[in-house]
Structure formats: C-alpha cells, structure tokens
Design goal:
Layout: E1 3-11, H1 20-29, E2 34-42, E3 51-55, H2 64-81, E4 86-90, H3 93-105, E5 110-113, H4 121-129, E6 132-135, E7 148-150, E8 172-176, H5 185-192, E9 199-203, H6 213-225, E10 231-235, H7 239-248, E11 251-254, H8 263-270, E12 275-277, H9 283-286, H10 290-293, H11 301-313, H12 316-334, H13 336-349
Parallel strand pairs: 1-2, 1-4, 2-3, 4-5, 5-6, 6-7, 8-9, 8-11, 9-10, 11-12
Helix pairs in contact: 2-3, 3-4, 5-6, 5-11
C-alpha cells in the first residue's frame, strides 16, 4: 500500500483563494492508495473516496492551544493507524515543524511546498527538518537551500480553458487578486484612466486580516479619476466565476512583484487571454511577445497604459493568436498533470525523474 499524509492550510472547495488545493488533493489521490489530510481549517469537502480530511478546528474558532492539541491527536492517530510513504506539507511550515518528531519516529519523509516571498524563523526551521522543499519558480522561495526543487505550478488547464472570444464592444481588462497594496490595483486604475473606453473588473476581496481602507481608497481613486462607471469591484469569486471573468476579458493584468510568481497570471494565460505582467519570472512563458506583455515595474502606470493601448488596438484575431500561444506555454510548463508527475516523484524518491541530487 502506498499512502500519503498531507498538511494543508485550508481544505474548502468554495474558498476564493485556496479552492485549488481540493483539485490538487484529488489529483494526488490518483497516485496513492489513500491520502489523509490534516488541515488548519475546513469548509465544503469535495474529495475523492480514498481521501480522508481532519481539521484542527480553526473554522470552529478553536484557540491556538486547542488546535495544537487537535493536530497532535489526529497526527498520532493517523500514524498509528496507517503507514505512509511520504508527507506533503502544502504552504504549512508550521505543521511541518510541529509534526517533525513524530514523522521522524515513524520514518515518514516530508516535502514542503512553499511559494511566497516572505520568510521567517519558522520557515527556516522547517527547511532544516524536511527532506525536500518544492516551489513554483526559481525566485518564489526566499531562502537558499540545496534541498530546493523547482517544479512549476499546477494549473488545471482543462478547467481554465478558452471560450469563444468576448463580444463586448468595450475593451475589458480584468485583474484577479486580493485587494492589497502589493497587488497594485491602484496602478491599473491610473493606467485605465489613460485608455479611452477601457473597462476594468477587479476580482478579489479584502483579506480578513486587512483593513477595508485600501478598497475604500481605490473607490475614491476611481471617482477622482472620473472612471467610476468604468470600474467594477467584483469581490471574492469562486473558481467558475473567476474563469468566466477571464473568458469575458480582452486582456488580463497581473502586477505581482518579484518573488510572487502568481498562479492567477498562469490561469488567465491558460484561458488564452493576453496577460500583462510585471514579474520577470514570467518571461519564459511570453516568448517573443515579452516586450509587449511586460512592464518594467508593478507601479509603472504609464508603461501599463501604453501596453493596454497597444493591445486594445490589435485586431481580435491577433489577440486570439497571442493568447493561444500563452496557453500552450502554460500547458507545457505548468499543467496540473505535469506538476503531479514531478511532485509524486519527489515525494517518493526525493528527486524529480531524471534528476540527481
């Protein structure tokens, strides 16, 4: 029997940010006899029959102490009940550290997935304790370590797939990102005000830990720029709604800075939407179109406006060809099936197939 233990931040098929982890869990379940998930919080559970999910109770308002007790109770129970070939800690350095002694005692190697620019002592400690660290892009893990393996992202390109081109007469621009300064929605609004007739849809809500002040400032900015009627704040959306926004758009914009290899940009490319980016890590996917799809910095509103004007002037057929090329590049480098093959190999052997230590 080949079983997998998985630590997850949120297991909720309806979560506006982390619903994709349910898709990942179900794909991993195709490679293992059984997958047991210990999650910080749970919502709607929609997993394969060979998957079990145990929450430590954050969704119930349990304290940190109560959640810690629940974690050890569930982990000890799982380890005594089932033998595991590997443990996969998805964006959970905390659980990787907490579980390290028991996992070592039972001989279960741990692989940590971490894709973010932020680092702290907990992350550094987790790197010392796990066998491997995996991340989506060379610049999406903040600490140097020989344990790191770059796997690409895992985009469900069957789900995030093109639909008939938008029929709207106005030039529609979509940005999918939580409303935070680091996502630079303000840059997009300033740029859009310089592009005649451009309509903007901001998909994403205010994170729970953030003040609504930034959203209110964006609303005021749109008013001051005279584009209130051209800006839609769509709020949090589920996966299907996000995909539908991409399908309706002429162009997508992603202004994540260096170190944030944002899968939202990959999803819009997978849908076949020309996507403007500011992070140079996306350059390999842009090919010969990098110059017209990249701006120099996430706060370069003039550069973004120039790129938007150029794309709005393109015939629809040329935008379609541009988007189709992006989709093929995402399929080649960041498809979910490709990631699963690489990830399973690392989980079981410590290495991707064909690569040595």
């Amino acid at each position: 029997m080949r079983n997998l233990l998985l630590f997850n931040l949120a297991t909720d098929a309806d979560d506006p940010i982390l619903s994709f982890t349910t898709v990942w869990i179900n794909r991993l379940a195709q490679h293992f006899d059984h997958v047991d998930v210990i999650t910080m919080r749970a919502g709607r559970i929609a997993v394969a029959p060979n998957v079990g999910v145990w929450s430590v109770g954050k969704e119930q308002g349990k304290s940190e102490f109560q959640r810690a007790l629940a974690f050890y109770r569930v982990l000890a129970g799982r380890l005594t009940h089932r033998r595991y070939a590997a443990c996969f800690a998805h964006m959970m350095p905390l659980f990787a550290v907490m579980g390290a002694p028991l996992l070592a005692w039972f001989g279960v190697p741990t692989t940590l997935w971490y894709t973010h620019r932020q680092s702290d002592r907990l992350l550094a400690l987790s790197v010392r304790l796990v066998r491997r660290v995996v991340t989506a892009a060379p610049d999406s893990f903040p600490l140097p370590t020989p344990k790191l393996r770059v796997t690409g992202h895992g985009i469900d390109t069957d789900f995030f797939a093109p639909a008939p081109p938008p029929a709207a007469a106005s030039f529609l621009v979509v940005q999918v990102a939580r409303l935070m300064k680091i996502k630079h929605q303000a840059t997009l609004l300033t740029a859009a005000s310089q592009v005649q007739g451009a309509q903007v849809v901001l998909v994403g809500g205010v994170p729970p830990e953030q003040s609504p002040a930034y959203r209110e400032a964006l609303i005021q900015q749109a008013h001051d720029l005279g584009i209130t009627e051209r800006v839609t704040f769509a709020g949090d959306q589920d996966r299907e709604q996000v995909r539908d926004h991409y399908r309706a758009a002429h162009v997508a914009v992603n202004l994540s800075p260096v170190g944030l290899f944002d899968k939202a940009a990959l999803e819009s490319m997978a849908v076949g939407v020309p996507t403007l980016v500011s992070n140079p890590a996306f350059a390999p996917l842009l090919g010969g179109d990098a110059a017209r799809l990249t701006i120099g910095a996430p706060d370069d509103s003039d550069g973004l406006a120039e790129r938007l004007r150029a794309l709005s002037a393109l015939p629809a057929g040329e935008r379609h060809v541009l988007g189709a090329a992006l989709r093929q590049n995402v399929i080649a480098a960041h498809s979910l099936d490709g990631l699963m093959a690489r990830l399973v190999s690392i989980l079981l052997t410590g290495e991707m197939e064909g690569q040595g230590v």
